[in-house]
Design goal:
Blueprint: E1 22-23, H1 27-31, H2 33-43, E2 47-53, E3 56-61, H3 64-71, H4 82-87, H5 95-98, H6 109-124, H7 131-144, E4 151-153, H8 154-171, H9 175-189, H10 194-214, H11 220-225, H12 233-247, H13 249-264, H14 266-269, H15 277-287, E5 293-297, E6 303-305, E7 308-310, E8 316-319, H16 320-324, H17 352-372, E9 377-378, E10 400-402
Parallel strand pairs: 1-2, 3-8
Antiparallel strand pairs: 2-3, 4-10, 5-8, 6-7, 9-10
Length: about 400
């Protein structure tokens, strides 16, 4: 039980008085987040006053043990943002990522349990044995569009279309609806026009819901529609919003960030070392997870944690990247990925089958590309790469590579 409201607490122990807030949405933060995390540890300790958007205060948790306590205490730290949302700026571009939604990531209690069950059952039906041939069938035509050129931005030309195509196949989303969702999903993570993003995404996913009610198939969307919970059309749309948000952007960034590691680190460029793609993925999940800062909760009351008072209903953001690299926990060994927070922990953690899907997809996507173009190398020094600013993701803007031109592959 945490201490709560009291009259004897030192007001100077409040997060509000710990110092100027760090802008985790800035270009400077995106360029060197781990430099910021080190400075945060020196200046603030486990809890850091931040802005997740101009004028939008939050607390960033950068201590592993503190994060695990919070994520496993939904009674004091619920994920439902409804109260906060009433006083938050309505037009901030990141709102689609954090506003109240009737889905598993933004509800608590019985509602959360109901939505979580529908997702678990829908995702558990994914046949992981079919994923490798599906990735191969999808990857080869994409690689053939640029393999003769000798250069490519593999983030935009390979990883994005591959991840999106495979996910749509698994979900049961036809290409025309998928194109609409792709545009809205990218805008959501890049913090573009809240109202337009929600309208575009909602319209596309309503059409997908109607399609699956009329023409069910053996896919994730159909299993959601047919679940005994009998989700309404609006509830269906919101579960699909969550699935697209987690099924596209995080795998996309995991693949790109892991490719960057494998193209620049001597442990992977020196083939005598026999380091595997899975090793690289585990390391990236531990050191630079694709969702670096998220798992947002909203304390019901003022609460004292690690000798710091947090205000009621102000966002508390878990820095998975900082917690995973917490000097108290990190030993530099990444072979066992079970301990880290890349997939969160507690009642809102990433469903087990979704984890398996995401890592296997990333592994197969990378292996297909490197098997096809084994002499690929980065086209510019890694320090010259640009990272997309934003409070939540760890995401490259582009991943330019060069390679000897190659003849098109045969399926």
């Amino acid at each position: 039980m945490y201490p709560q409201q009291g009259t004897t607490a030192d007001p100077m122990s409040s997060i509000e008085f710990k110092g100027p807030r760090i802008q985790i949405y800035s270009k400077e933060f995106a360029a060197d987040p781990h430099g910021f995390y080190r400075q945060m540890r020196r200046d603030f300790g486990p809890l850091v006053p931040v802005e997740m958007w101009p004028g939008v205060p939050a607390t960033l948790v950068i201590n592993y043990r503190t994060a695990v306590r919070i994520l496993n205490d939904p009674d004091h730290f619920p994920a439902d943002p409804s109260v906060w949302h009433k006083t938050a700026p309505a037009d901030i571009p990141i709102m689609p990522m954090i506003e109240p939604r009737p889905n598993a990531i933004r509800t608590s209690g019985a509602d959360h349990a109901r939505y979580r069950d529908t997702l678990n059952i829908a995702l558990a039906g994914i046949d992981l044995n079919s994923l490798q041939p599906m990735v191969q069938r999808t990857a080869i035509p994409i690689i053939n569009t640029f393999c003769e050129d000798g250069n490519a931005d593999v983030l935009k030309q390979y990883v994005l279309p591959l991840v999106f195509s495979v996910f749509c196949q698994v979900l049961g989303c036809p290409p025309d609806i998928g194109d609409e969702v792709a545009a809205a999903s990218a805008a959501m993570f890049d913090s573009v026009d809240t109202e337009a993003v929600n309208a575009q995404m909602g319209n596309a996913l309503f059409n997908l819901t109607a399609l699956k009610r009329a023409h069910p198939a053996g896919d994730v969307a159909t299993r959601l529609v047919q679940h005994p919970a009998e989700l309404t059309d609006e509830e269906m749309v919101q579960q699909l919003v969550l699935l697209f948000a987690t099924g596209i952007e995080p795998p996309l960034n995991l693949i790109a960030n892991t490719l960057l590691l494998m193209l620049t680190d001597p442990r992977f460029t020196n083939h005598d070392n026999h380091f595997t793609t899975k090793t690289a993925l585990d390391e990236r999940l531990a050191t630079d997870p694709p969702m670096a800062n998220y798992c947002i909760t909203y304390p019901r009351q003022p609460i004292l944690i690690d000798d710091v008072w947090l205000p009621a209903n102000q966002p508390v953001i878990i820095s998975m990247a900082a917690c995973n690299t917490d000097p108290e926990m990190n030993t530099g060994e990444f072979l066992d990925n079970g301990w880290n927070l890349a997939f969160s922990t507690g009642p809102h953690n990433c469903p087990a089958h979704a984890r398996l899907y995401g890592v296997l997809l990333a592994q197969e996507a990378i292996d297909q590309l490197l098997d096809a173009l084994p002499e690929m190398r980065l086209a510019l020094p890694p320090e010259k790469l640009d990272w997309r600013p934003g409070p939540f993701h760890r995401a490259l803007k582009a991943l330019p590579v060069v390679f000897p031109p190659s003849s098109p592959l045969q399926l």
